[in-house]
Design brief:
110 residues, alpha+beta, Membrane-bound Lytic Murein Transglycosylase D, Chain A, 2 domains, two-stranded antiparallel sheet, elongated
Amino acid sequence: MSEDREIIPKNNQNYYNYYTVEKGDSLYGIARRYNINPELLAGLNGLSMEDYIYPNQEILIPKSGYSYYITKEGDTVDIVANMFKITPEDLLKKNGVVYLAEGQVLVNPR
């Protein structure tokens, strides 16, 4: 990942697979292969869509069955919980400590 992205919950092996970039790969191509939103793929890995990815670079691939949200400035627990259509208490229970710092990744089972 090109920049540190704080992923909540910390037990992320349940929510992500790892993919090793191969020569000729692009974020669009990888996203299409795994049927995920390319902007989500970039955001989860601390990248922008214009960033170059390198062979042998390891990136996170979100697993299906979960919703992902990358926090933005001004988010509150209530706002994010409402986006996931759960209670604020469930959001905190499922994600542990939530600081709502910009760029935090929150996960919710679908």
